[in-house]
Amino acid sequence: MFGLFKSAEAPEGPVEFENEIEIGASAEEVYRLLDFGDRANAHRARGDTVIDLGGGCRFEMCIDGLHNLNFCFAIIEAEPHTRYGFDCTMQPPVGNLVSSRESYEIEALGPDNCRLKQTTSAQFVEGLRLKAYVRECSVMAEAVALSQFKLKLQAEEGVAAVKEFEEAQQV
């Protein structure tokens, strides 16, 4: 009876988000946009600072406009033009997200198009209430879809198109 009005706790463990999208660019071009060690990396091209912390396996990124937030990446998989994956933490932590793991599979469909499958596993803080957990999952799902859309936009139309899209979102 005493627990009757107590809000439910969220399930434990990571939550997985999966998206797939076709991109009008080669598998090689898309891989280069993902690879933090490549000068053509999507974030580098947009003006974000990406620093190699150790032999192409660990990177730190500061997104232009978010100067007090660093993204720390540990590369877990890098198979050129086919697979790329990394673990990510943010310093300082943001919201209830503890860490994430992003894995990308690239399938060439032709010389100038490919399919990109993204799997993101997000770990949230323990002890979240169900309502907060649902909200965090919604935010994460939207972030995954948005990042994939921006990657497609950049591969097909260039950095200027992404910047124009981002500016329109801030209105």
Q: What would you say this structure looks like, in words?
A:
The protein has 171 residues and is an alpha+beta fold. It has one domain (15-169): 2-Layer Sandwich (Alpha-D-Glucose-1,6-Bisphosphate, Chain A, domain 4), CATH 3.30.530. 30% of the residues lie in helices and 37% in strands. A seven-stranded antiparallel sheet has the order 1-7-6-5-4-3-2, with helices on one face. The longest helix is centred in the last third of the chain and has 28 residues, at 130-157. It is globular and about 55 Å long. The mean pLDDT is 92.
How would the blueprint of this fold be written?
Blueprint: E1 15-23, H1 27-34, H2 42-45, E2 49-52, E3 58-62, E4 70-79, E5 83-91, E6 97-110, E7 113-124, H3 130-157, H4 159-169
Antiparallel strand pairs: 1-7, 2-3, 3-4, 4-5, 5-6, 6-7
Tell me the number of strands: 7
**Strand sequence of the main sheet, in spatial order?**
1-7-6-5-4-3-2
Instruction: Name the CATH superfamily classification.
Output: START domain
Radius of gyration: 17 Å
Mean pLDDT metric:
92
Count of discrete structural domains? 1
Count of individual helical segments: 4
**Alpha-carbon distance between the two ends:** 49 Å
Order of helices and strands: EHHEEEEEEHH
Describe the structure concisely.
The chain is an alpha+beta fold. It has helices at residues 27-34, 42-45, 130-157, 159-169; strands at 15-23, 49-52, 58-62, 70-79, 83-91, 97-110, 113-124. It has a single domain (15-169), classed as START domain (Alpha-D-Glucose-1,6-Bisphosphate, Chain A, domain 4, 2-Layer Sandwich), CATH 3.30.530.20.
